[in-house]
Amino acid sequence: MNFPTLKIGDLIPRYPIIQGGMAYKVSTAPLVSAVANAGGIGIIGATGMTVDELIAEIRKTRSMTRGIIGVNVMYAIRNFADLIAASIKEKIDVIFTGAGFSRDVFDWGREGRVPIVSIVSSARLAKMAEKLGAAAVVAESGDAGGHLGTERSTAEILPEIRSAVNIPVIAAGGIISGRDIADMVRMGADGVQMATRFVLSTECAVSDAFKQHYLKANADDVIVIKSPVGMPGRALRNTFTSLIEQGGAMLKPVECKKCLKVCSKEYCIIQALENSRIGLIDQGIVFAGKNVYKIKDILPVSKIFERLISEFKSA
């Protein structure tokens, strides 16, 4: 089996493998550039960043690669428009957006000549994105880590979305191996988005404690939690998720920055993500995909790509 050719606007990566844009500051320049250098598309997780922080991250990434790079910005955040505008001004290659649906972003992308990729979980939203001008859609299932738009599996939603649109469809959720990529391609995917696998790379900027929490996980540790964003989220069980389940004392920001358009204020999602990123695992949330427990090693991105390519060809 050969890899399909993934074309997003005028962009054609060597391999149709996209590294998911993980917030808060999980996918930054070292990881993003390494994926781009390996022949995939590296994505900066812009959610939670200020405009100045994002500009600095884009420029740093550009200095480390000549490959394809993009940003992922959640529609649910208040500075969504500002981050999109900054990304376009910095001539980012591609913009991914989900966790809500913006109509305006397609006009902004056209004006700035930057392709927009919508992250969707239904055929209805995929068709709407195509009509408005999306260059591609990510069919993200309930098998993914982080905030979820559906409880349904990739195997359920991918064929429906594929049959609903004529633009490229990128499968996401629970994909960790080359064999998984082959399965998605057989179901009609033009490419895949993978996030969890790339957390366990040497280039990912999270703490060692975060990575060890991944490595120690078993299937029963992967749970779905409530998020103040108003969407469920898939994460790994720890002390903090137990507090969420019990409705106990939550992590409150010292000073609320009102980063979300709508927030339940049950706890501060940005602080929870930052705590886990820097190693305070039991004081934060460790987002992870459904199949995280199947990953047993930490490798350089180049080695991850070599393994994915070998497994894909074998499949």
UniProtKB/TrEMBL annotation:
Record key words, sorted: Dioxygenase, Flavoprotein, FMN, Oxidoreductase
GO molecular function: dioxygenase activity; nitronate monooxygenase activity
Family matches, as InterPro entries: Aldolase_TIM, NMO
Function (record text): Nitronate monooxygenase that uses molecular oxygen to catalyze the oxidative denitrification of alkyl nitronates. Acts on propionate 3-nitronate (P3N), the presumed physiological substrate. Probably functions in the detoxification of P3N, a metabolic poison produced by plants and fungi as a defense mechanism.
Name the record gives this protein: Probable nitronate monooxygenase
UniProt organism field: Desulforudis audaxviator (strain MP104C)
